Prior knowledge:
- It contains nine helices and four strands.
- By secondary structure, the protein is α+β, with helices and mostly antiparallel strands.
- Helix 3 (51-63) packs parallel to helix 4 (87-106), helix 3 packs across helix 6 and helix 6 (136-149) packs antiparallel against helix 7 (156-167).
Amino acid sequence: MSLRDRIERRWVPRAVVTLSQVDWPARMSARVRRAAGRRERVELFFAFDDASSAVAVLDLATRLGGREAELVLTPVVRRGLRDDPAAAAKRRYAIADARRLARSRLGLELGRDTPLQADDTAFLAEWVAGARTNPNRFIAPALRRLWLLDDAPVDRAAFEQLWREAMGGAPDPNPEGVRAAEARMTRRNGPYDTPAAVIGRRWWFAQDRPQQIVERLDELGWG
Length: 223
């Protein structure tokens, strides 16, 4: 075996595995944050039309309670594989899976049986992107209304009233902010669909790995 073959077949794979296990930069960053009085960021890319996102947002908001971590909820509209022939089937499965997870983890029942289309709720993502204060107090109630109450069509007027109650004033849509969030999600070189949680350089599908997300925070000293 030539030297080049040895490098390509043995050394390169071993180096990749070794580098993937190097964790000191993340731990150092966490120490610097704590010394500066800052909290860790858990960015959750989600979509209002995604049943799994609804479960992930409500679940992580509960799990992160008491930890020194900020849940940054970032809505997107365009995500997933372009022209995916299985998109419709995935949406139906997401509802069935979200129903199971909502029951087992949150003790809640999904009220919606019919998949939503991205265009049905894109205005909600634009409102959140244009928020001048933390929009989390609107996002959770909005997701509950969309997915837990009933199977009714999306009522824009009802959501505007919910926004006024939670945020004060009228929404200020920012479609460019949504596009920027979608681009940032793509640059993460991993998450291609929602809900995706990111801590530093690591990411997880949040509906499947909420416990691993919490464990990662504990590893970094944010318990």
